[in-house]
Amino acid sequence: MSTILGGSSKLTLAKIIDIWGRVEGFLFMLLIVVVGLIVKATCRNIETYVVAHALYWVGHIGMMYVIDIMPADMTTLKSRMIMLGINGTPSIASTLAGPRIATLFYTNLDFRWAFGALAIMITGTSIPVVGIMLTWNSYFTQFSACKILSPSTTKATPNKTSQIRYTGEYKWTVFTSIRILLGTALLIPFRQPTTHVGILTMTQILVGLGTCIFTVCGQLVTMAPVTHQEIAIVVAIWGLFGLISAAVGSAIAGGI
């Protein structure tokens, strides 16, 4: 339910950030996230927790959506692939550090402190983002440095983002993401308890690489044929169908 609500809210948010502005939309979603986390930390029954999680997820999806729109405002279509890759690099740190941090909260405190701390951390880390949104245009109008970025890593596929940047060819790049099917298919014979953890890791790496390429190329292809004024709404529609599919898949997986 929360996933579908998050996807549907993108359409409303697209109109908000087009009329009011990117900063206002981002702050509105941040407020929803913080409220959801506070309610999570103080809830006393499952019904309240469900509502709080729905609020949190709508705000979380909305914040990520605004951040994904920012590269379209800052770059040309030719350089946009690299910027979309840079947007995903924080997931490297969170993937590695997240489980350890969650374990520390679980063993030393409780889930209420975890949600409360997350509300504080999200607010603290979002302040610099708001500052960038407010000052980007004025600063880089004087110092045209927004196109000299040369990241050493962009998400899990730096070679693909650079390839599209210099060749302009994305169709064959999308075809290489077929590895996601290979990684998923290999989980069938390797699902036994005796399977070595290294083999399972290999399958997840294949799935991750394919997912990254699918996601970034999908956003790029969606933005390419429309004008700048239409980017927010087409990306929202693209995300809506993706999140609805994710919700259906999660429901099926839960039933199995």
UniProtKB/TrEMBL annotation:
Primary location class: membrane
Keywords linked to the UniProt accession: Membrane, Transmembrane, Transmembrane helix
Name of the protein this chain belongs to: Major facilitator superfamily domain-containing protein
Keyword Transmembrane: yes
SUPFAM superfamilies per record: MFS general substrate transporter
Transmembrane segments: 19-39, 46-67, 113-134, 202-224, 231-253
InterPro entries: MFS_trans_sf
Membrane topology designation: Multi-pass membrane protein
Location in or out of the cell: Membrane
Lipid biosynthesis listed as a keyword: no
Gene Ontology molecular functions: transmembrane transporter activity
Gene Ontology CC: plasma membrane
UniProt cross-references to Gene3D superfamilies, sorted A to Z: MFS general substrate transporter like domains (1.20.1250.20)
